[in-house]
Structures are given as structure tokens and as C-alpha cells.
């Protein structure tokens, strides 16, 4: 007797395989160590001269990534003995949403705030990716205050050139940041996302700005100013837990 498998079961099984292993399916998933081994030589070759220009040892111990949504630039900063040094800028390869914080699932907004890295994904559908800890404590507090639920998640810095609410910077560039983050340790990396350069005199209109946005922007502005003005060691510290956790 021959058995026929219903078409809908085949489709469901195919979707489950794609969800778990990506497309085309990857039945031999890579590890973070695999990615570092694959790309570390090229990354060192590309970035070491930039570190030498700033008299900073490679690989760095602490990183800050500053994303300017208006300029569509992700800047790499590295801690040094007397403060922070800007090493390189990575243009967004795509963008979505408008200026202003992310408020709900599916709004296409890139979040704004100060975030940590939850984990590195070496098997991303977008080549490689780094997951931000959105929503952080501040996001959750403001959502509770506003009586908002379903505020979204799964926000990544990733490769490729498509996105809905994430920060894509292309495959070659994500290889650099992925390797640096792996070498420094994800707990030593912060991501600051700002609508525009809040330290400049230029003011940009942020439509539909929630009442608490000014508090958020004041905190981001202070962090950016401290990067420019304070020394490292005991004075420069990772951001307050309410914002980064």
C-alpha cells in the first residue's frame, strides 16, 4: 500500500526547516569561534592600521557603537587611556521608519537608547548578526507608563542590505564588528542609538515624539558628551544599568 503525504504537511515541514536552518538550509551550523577563525585575519589586516594610528592595542578591550539614524552611520569607538577614539564609520545599507523611538511591534522603527549586546548569531539569514537587548529596562518602564504592550523585539545589527527596524551595514562590515565584539566580549560592548547628533546645535524635528523622549535624549546627549570630555579609567564607565540593561 502506498502512502501519500498531504501537500500541506510537506509545506509545514519545509517552513519548519527554513525557520530552524535558514535558506538555503544549513544543517551544520557555525559557532562564534568558527566565525572568528574564518575572518579574524582579514579583520585584523583591515583594522590594525586604524588602531595603530590611535596608539591603541588590537584587539580592543571595550567598544562603543554609536548609530546616528538621520545620518545613517554606525560609528565604532574604542576606549583608550585618555578617553575614546573613533576608529571607523559604517554606513547603513538600508533603513526603515522615521526619527523617534520604537513604540510597538511592527512599526518599522529602529529603537533609540543605550543598549547592550545579548548574543552573537553566526548563522543569521543576514550573513552575521548581533542582537541588541531591546527592550531594555527603560523601554519597558516607558511602555508600562504608556499602557503599551507588544513593544517588539529581535533588533539586530546585521549584514546584507535589507531591514525592517534593524541596522544593516553589509556583509564585510558586520564581519569586522562581529569579530571585534567576540574578541572583546559582548559585555564590554555598548550600542548608543540616537535620532541625530544630539551634541550639535542642529535640531531636527521628531514627529509623534512621546512625552518621555526628552528624558531619553538628555541621557543619550550626556553619554555622547562624556565620550568626548571625560577620561577613561575611573571616570569613563559603562552606562547606567537602567538604560543598558
* Average residue-wise pLDDT: 89
CATH topology: L,D-transpeptidase catalytic domain-like
Percent helix among the residues? Answer: 25-40%
Quickly give the structural class: alpha+beta
From the alpha-carbon coordinates, what is the Rg to the nearest angstrom?
A: 20 Å
Q: N-to-C terminal Cα separation, in Å? A: 59 Å
Specify the overall morphology: flat
Quantity of strands, as a count: 8
Report the CATH superfamily: L,D-transpeptidase catalytic domain-like
**Total of domains:** 1
Assembly annotation: single chain
CATH class: Mainly Beta
What share of residues are in beta strands? 15-25%
* Helix-strand pattern: HHEEEEEHEEHEHH
Spatial order of strands in the largest sheet: 3-2-1-8-4-5-6-7
- pLDDT < 50 stretches: 231-241
Query: Can you name the CATH architecture?
Result: Beta Barrel
Q: What's the tally of helices?
A: 6
* Largest sheet descriptor: 8 strands, mixed
Task: Please explain how this structure is put together.
There is one protein chain. The chain is an alpha+beta fold. The protein has a single domain, classed as L,D-transpeptidase catalytic domain-like (Beta Barrel), CATH 2.40.440.10. The chain contains 6 helices and 8 strands; from the N terminus they run ααβββββαββαβαα. It has helices at 7-21, 32-53, 137-146, 171-184, 213-229, 241-244; strands at 63-68, 73-80, 83-91, 113-121, 129-132, 156-158, 167-168, 189-194. The protein has an 8-stranded mixed sheet with strand order 3-2-1-8-4-5-6-7, sandwiched between helices. A hairpin with a 2-residue loop joins strand 2 (73-80) and strand 3 (83-91). Helix 2 (32-53) packs across helix 4. The chain is flat, with a radius of gyration of 20 Å. The model is unreliable at 231-241 (pLDDT under 50).
Amino acid at each position: 500500500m502506498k502512502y501519500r503525504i498531504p501537500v500541506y504537511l510537506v509545506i509545514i515541514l519545509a517552513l519548519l526547516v527554513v525557520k530552524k536552518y535558514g535558506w538555503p538550509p544549513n544543517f551544520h551550523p557555525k559557532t562564534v569561534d568558527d566565525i572568528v577563525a574564518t575572518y579574524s585575519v582579514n579583520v585584523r589586516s583591515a583594522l590594525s592600521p586604524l588602531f595603530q594610528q590611535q596608539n591603541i592595542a588590537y584587539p580592543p578591550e571595550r567598544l562603543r557603537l554609536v548609530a546616528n539614524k538621520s545620518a545613517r552611520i554606525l560609528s565604532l569607538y574604542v576606549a583608550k587611556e585618555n578617553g575614546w577614539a573613533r576608529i571607523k564609520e559604517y554606513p547603513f545599507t538600508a533603513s526603515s521608519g522615521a526619527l523617534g523611538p520604537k513604540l510597538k511591534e511592527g512599526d518599522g522603527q529602529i529603537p533609540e537608547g543605550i543598549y547592550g549586546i545579548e548574543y552573537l548569531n553566526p548563522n543569521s539569514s543576514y550573513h552575521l548578526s548581533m542582537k541588541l537587548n531591546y527592550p531594555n529596562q527603560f523601554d519597558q518602564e516607558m511602555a508600562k507608563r504608556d499602557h503599551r504592550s507588544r513593544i517588539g523585539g529581535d533588533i539586530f545589527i546585521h549584514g546584507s542590505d535589507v531591514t525592517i527596524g534593524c541596522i544593516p551595514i553589509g556583509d564585510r562590515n558586520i564581519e569586522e564588528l562581529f569579530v571585534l565584539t567576540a574578541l572583546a566580549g559582548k559585555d564590554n560592548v555598548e550600542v548608543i542609538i540616537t535620532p541625530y547628533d544630539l551634541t550639535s546645535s542642529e535640531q531636527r524635528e521628531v514627529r509623534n515624539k512621546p512625552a518621555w523622549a526628552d528624558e531619553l535624549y538628555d541621557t543619550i546627549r550626556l553619554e555622547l558628551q562624556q565620550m568626548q570630555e571625560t577620561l577613561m579609567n575611573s571616570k569613563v564607565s559603562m552606562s547606567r544599568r537602567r538604560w543598558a540593561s
